[in-house]
Amino acid sequence: MMGYVEAPKAWGLTRGMGRVVGVNLTDAVIEGWLSRGELAELVDRCQACARAEDCTRWLGAHVSADALPGFCPNKAGIESLIAR
């Protein structure tokens, strides 16, 4: 199992953002679309973000979406993995 014990909330939010746009981040690493280091950078960027409450609300309101919200610092990184 892949996860980030030192940043469980950030890992959950990052994984959730991927899930909403149809990206399984664990599979992306396993299949080579994303390195483990790149995934760690996504989680670190999320952990440093001051918008966790906004993110939680947005995730709670969206089962799926075509794009992530503009406030997400991982928007470009996660969206680049859509349809791979």
Report on the architecture of this protein.
- With 84 residues, this protein is an all-alpha fold.
- It is globular.
- The chain contains five helices and no strands.
Distance between the termini: 21 Å
Count of DSSP strands: 0
Count of alpha/pi helices: 5
Uncertain runs:
none
**Estimated helix fraction:** 55-70%
Sheet/helix structural class:
mainly alpha
Oligomer: single chain
Strand percentage, roughly?
under 5%
Order of helices and strands: HHHHH
Mean pLDDT: 92
Rg estimate, integer Å:
12 Å
The shape is: globular
Q: Sheet with the most strands?
A: none
Annotate the secondary structure layout.
Blueprint lengths: L7 H13 L4 H6 L5 H13 L3 H10 L13 H5 L5
Salient structural properties:
84 residues, mainly alpha
Short description:
The protein is mainly α and 84 residues long.
